[in-house]
């Protein structure tokens, strides 16, 4: 329990540090008027006064920071004047399920593909099939995600849509799970497959190397000596020894994707997720929306990393004493 509390306390400290840096960069840069930047060019004195009052810019910096964090995390309200008074926290909360759905499905596809290819390549050893899997994995890693997404769209949304193979593919966009589970899966399966391809190739190569290294280790020799069969040695011993490094990297990558890193896939497939929202915020230089997206991304990464640390500590209890 103390390990879990220590990990979450560490995460909260990281989140607080990121929020201070972001607030300083966006709203407390010396020589700039944050109210004028928020209200936009040609804003009336009345609007400027409203923005200063809304964000508390007429108060000391610590109070401004506390007011903004209170608005984001407690009130869940932060106003964007670029988008005519919209609540940016509500926008982020509405976009989050889309990104979680995309990244969650991509994570499942990556895990299945990684276990299949990585375990298959390790079992084949140095035979010809292993070389073919290694080439396939390298091809997956080298394929740019935005290019693949455009090709998939061109085939499934263009002339190829009339072919029986692609008639089931819905138009670009997103259908919520609660509205229609079948359409939810149909609109996400191609974007998630596109997103997972490079990760599958990368983690399959990594898992193969870890498995072959584990098979030469002392615990595996002990398991053979005790009479364990090949299936048990590969799945219960070698795989367990190999997963720590893969899970640590896997967790970091997918936490980053859940925080908006899936931007290219969301833009290409017109999915209204966090990445798409960050793209719009950067295009319009919407500071409140950028602040909310950055804080959401940091929160996603901190929480996911804490959960990954707990999972790794379950697999290897020696990690519980790590600082």
Please describe the structure with a list of short key phrases separated by commas or semicolons.
single chain, 323 residues, mainly alpha, two-stranded antiparallel ribbon, cell membrane, transmembrane helix, transport, ABC transporter permease, BPD_transp_1_N
What is the 3D shape? globular
The biggest beta sheet is recorded as: 2 strands, antiparallel
Structural class: mainly alpha
What is the ordering of alpha helices and beta strands?
A: HHHHEEHHHHHHHHH
Low-pLDDT runs of 5+ residues are: none
Estimated radius of gyration: 24 Å
Overall average pLDDT: 84
Strand content: under 5%
Strand order of the largest sheet: 1-2
The number of E-state strands comes to 2
Approximate helicity band: over 70%
Organism: Candidatus Kirkpatrickella diaphorinae
Transmembrane segments: 12-29, 102-124, 131-149, 182-204, 246-269, 289-312
Keywords: Cell membrane, Membrane, Transmembrane, Transmembrane helix, Transport
Subcellular location: Cell membrane
SSE order and pairing:
Layout: H1 2-27, H2 34-39, H3 45-55, H4 61-74, E1 79-80, E2 86-87, H5 88-124, H6 128-142, H7 145-157, H8 181-215, H9 218-225, H10 230-261, H11 263-268, H12 274-284, H13 287-315
Antiparallel strand pairs: 1-2
Helix pairs in contact: 1-13, 5-6, 5-8, 5-10, 5-13, 6-8, 7-8, 8-10, 9-10, 10-12, 10-13, 12-13
Keywords: Cell membrane, Membrane, Transmembrane, Transmembrane helix, Transport
Membrane topology: Multi-pass membrane protein
Transmembrane segments: 12-29, 102-124, 131-149, 182-204, 246-269, 289-312
